[in-house]
# Entry
Amino acid sequence: MDKTVKNLAIGLLVLMILTPLGLLAVGETFGEWSNEEIKEKLGFVPPGLEGLSNLWNAPLPDYALPGSEESMTLSAVAYILSAVIGVVLCAGLLYVIGKKVAKD
Amino acid sequence: MHIPDGYLGPYTYIAMWIIMIPIWYYAGKKLGSELKSRQVPLLALAAAFSFVIMMFNIPIPGGSTGHAVGAAIVGIVLGPWAGVIAISVALVLQALMFGDGGITAIAANCFNMAVIMPFSGYYLYKIVSGSSPIASPRRIAGAAIAGYISLVLAAASTGFMFGIQPLLHQSPEGIPLYMPYGLNVALPAMLLEHIIGFGILEALVTGLIFTYIQKTDSSLLYAQKSARSDRNSGKSVSA
# Structure
């Protein structure tokens, strides 16, 4: 592997360890409210939105494990674990596809 | 910027799937014809990096939180079509595994973050850089500006998709069925927080990574590669 790419990979490792910093930001994100938050804002949940909102049950919703939100440490561990899963799957998938299609 | 399920009505999310499927198909073909073995680790790294950078939520004044995407630097380094693939993989995984972004909205989210960003990022970088030498600081400025504007454009597109929902889908009594806020609210809200907040982070991330690659191994850069093969072959690269 090129030296620069290797150093970038090390940089990514450092970022993965630091991801729990991303949990410190509290607040809402425009257009990503839960049904309860919408109800608070409008007094009702738009019916189409309500119907679609529970379409999919992700295995690790919000980068958390069941019950991990109760403590800061557990949240941080779950968040780093999510980063590891994300990195392994993203990089693994593209590495395999890349090797298959790459020239020379 | 990850639109959840339920915020876009069927007209919008189905239209976005119809738009994205040929884009993904073409991007896949492009990848097959352009990707060199040497770039494969960088491509894998790019998707992983984008996944991780989106986990860094930052607060901005006004109580909102958001993040950078890292898609402009990926477009600049690997080229816009490889950027489409790398960022799409990260976004699909976020939706399926972590419920970040809706399943119905995968195509819409990919259009905003995995198409608009690497393309606008790559071309803005090229425009600002002009014919300056590869080591020129002007290129760092180009990368940072590309990061900033590309994220703002993606936010504008997201705000637009949100904002047209009350126009497209209302009950006979005038109750909005999906995203309840129209263009007058959604567009300025999305634009403002990315202009004053997250765009600056994207500019920083893009500029820093670009500077590192520029200083250590500029041969990794996509634009550098195509320029070099232009010279070597004496004709334009057509792929």
Q: What stands out?
A: DSSP finds four helices and no strands in chain A. Chain A has one domain: 3-101. The helical segments of chain A are 3-18, 35-42, 47-53, 72-101. Chain A touches chain B through 65 residues (CB under 8 Å).
